[in-house]
Amino acid sequence: MLSRFAASIAAALAWLGRHGTQGFALSIFLGLALPQFSAAARPVLPVTIFCFTTIVFMRADLGIIAGLVRRPGKLILSCLWLVAAPVLLIGGAFLLLGREALDPGLLLGLAIMGAAPPIMSSPAVAILYGFEPSLIIACVILSTIVSPVVAPFLVELLAGAAVPLDSWVLAFRLLLFVGGGMAVAAALRVWLGVERIKGMKANLDGFGVLMYFIFAIAAMDGVTQAAIDDPKRVLLFLACVFAVSGFGLLTAYLALRRLPASERFMIGYGSGQRNMGMIVAALGAGVPPSTFLFFALAQFPIYLQPWLLRGLAARIRRREA
Fold first, then answer.
1. What pLDDT digit, counting tens, does each position of 19-73 carry?
2. Long-range pairs for 44-49 at CB < 8 Å and ≥24 separation?
């Protein structure tokens, strides 16, 4: 009986994993459609982020990463781009517009977006598109590892006094997230073995989609009411997040000409899609409501772009094949 139940769960997760791009797109609309559950699910946000971190480290192919490290030019270039490009893009916008002219919640939200590492689902999206994921996996892992040291000070650089938490406290909390995820991932790799983890690919993909669904419900807390009460602010925030996402993808694709098209595409994807949830969770109750609204709306390109860009990704894959 128990084994049949476990097999049914595994089959359901595998089915979710095979329909990953549709699952990402659907989950955010289900999150909006279930506002009554959003407030209850919001405390689960840190748990889902911890699960994402653990899965990425658990599935990392250390041999491939070691190979990239032995020839580090491409890896260093990509990691520097993923860290610096969003900061320069958003910092340049702040210089052009003036920080004092911006809504404080928008200011802090954009600063968090610029300082955060690439979204943890970037390798999963590369795999769903049929791209070779080694480079983006290595970049996500390395930039996430350094994020407890780098991200707090980049947030302070961009947002100044708008940051509601001391940089060292934020760094310590991020270290607990990242270090804890690495420790759990290492234990699971020892317990399950690398080959068994590889064999669970579809199940782990499905588990990731499930976590993103729960994350979407939690992140959508207050979005529906905000759209009713202040639609202009919601539209402004949405325009900002899609602009950062689009510019991140376009600039990387055009500038990193030394890389294959699929790798440029994924580095651009990671440049515009940022793991804001890690910093928002670390800030905790200090996050202003308007910044949480920005963070919630920043999930729309994260959830929709894997589906919206699938045609472009397919053309790149065919051209490289």
1. 555 555 666 676 677 667 777 777 888 888 888 888 888 887 777 777 777 778 8
2. 44/214, 44/218, 45/215, 45/218, 45/219, 45/277, 45/280, 45/281, 46/177, 46/281, 48/211, 48/212, 48/214, 48/215, 48/218, 48/277, 49/120, 49/177, 49/215, 49/275, 49/277, 49/278, 49/281
